[in-house]
Amino acid sequence: MYVTANHQHNVHSLYSDHHGWLYQWLRRRLGNTFDAADLAQDAFLRLLTKPREFDSFEGARAYLSVVAKGLCVDLWRHREIEQAWLETLAVQPETQAPSSEHCAMIMQALCEIDVMLSQLSAKAANAFVMAMAYGMTDKEVAKQLGVSDRMVRKYVTQAMLHCISLEAKLMMPHVKNSDVL
After folding, report:
1. Position with higher pLDDT, 23 vs 168
2. Alpha helices of the chain — where are they, by DSSP H?
3. Angstrom distance (rounded) from CA 106 to CA 98
4. Taking the model in full, what pTM does it have?
């Protein structure tokens, strides 16, 4: 990505004006200086990768706080997934424990699936998980969700199309959403 000198100057000014405030805000929210520092950096990294203009000091802080809240949610969700994975590993016999590399790949895949599911309606996400992860039939899922078999098929199809769309965006980041499907 090409970043202009003017844009770098704007980000530098924003960083100088707001980094200390954002770091303190995150530290209070997270109770952890290391996570606060990481997320503050991530917030400013977003400004480098997706340039924005602000019409006021308050506008910049409002944007940074929204970004920081989203980063906090992402961090907490990631930690929940990681904890569930570690609990699953803890009950497995040592002989079946995957390698560290395999564990990292599984964690990354679980986090990507979580992001995908969070973008669907609750019923579509639940139908997809019940059908794909638990191997439940359409009839079983329909009974559990209180919908028709046909609606279950629609939810699962919607989730599959969403997966394909996300995969296409990863493979071809320059393609817009409307061009994928």
Report:
1. 23
2. 5-30, 33-49, 57-90, 100-118, 122-132, 138-145, 149-171, 177-180
3. 10
4. 0.63
